[in-house]
Design brief:
The protein has 160 residues and is mostly helical. The chain is built from 7 helices and no strands. Helix 3 packs antiparallel against helix 5. The longest helix has 25 residues.
Length: 160
């Protein structure tokens, strides 16, 4: 393993397809939450912040599941089980994404959106759902995160 992971391995920890589903539900929620077209700049900031927070949660999820992923055929080719990324590198990457995503939400959207999206909906809701469903279904993460994201988008357009 080289000293630095590749960009593709770091992005592989982010579960980009799942994040795309989260962002789709968030944007639809932003559009449906008010009877007018929301401010485009605010929607962009909210989408970027939500995306980074969701990617951060996905990275931490990989760290939590590293041992399980090594044993499962479906997940044994991920960057952590393959040792393409070290646990420390993954933690730093996840922390970076989370801090930047939260910062964008706090500075450009509003504090309540940042706190509820980052901590409750992205981390707690999706990861707690994930922990209990991993052994039962291959769609645990997709359904858990999208369900949680679909319940929160109205917060993203509650302007300051």
């Amino acid at each position: 393993m080289s000293n630095f992971p590749s960009i593709s391995d770091l992005l592989g920890l982010c579960k980009l397809k799942v994040v795309a589903l989260i962002l789709l539900t968030a944007v639809v929620g932003m559009l449906l939450s008010v009877p007018y077209i929301p401010d485009i700049a605010l929607m962009i900031y909210a989408t970027v912040g939500i995306g980074m927070a969701s990617a951060s949660a996905a990275v931490f999820n990989h760290v939590i599941d590293e041992e399980i992923d090594q044993k499962m055929k479906r997940t044994d080719q991920r960057p952590l089980p393959q040792q393409k990324v070290t646990r420390t590198q993954a933690l730093i990457w996840g922390f970076f994404l989370g801090v930047v995503g939260l910062g964008i939400l706090i500075l450009k959207v509003n504090f309540i959106t940042a706190v509820t999206d980052f901590y409750f909906f992205d981390w707690l809701c999706s990861d707690l759902y994930h922990v209990f469903k991993k052994s039962n279904t291959s769609k645990h993460c997709d359904w858990g995160r999208c369900w949680c994201r679909a319940s929160s988008p109205r917060l993203d357009c509650n302007y300051q």
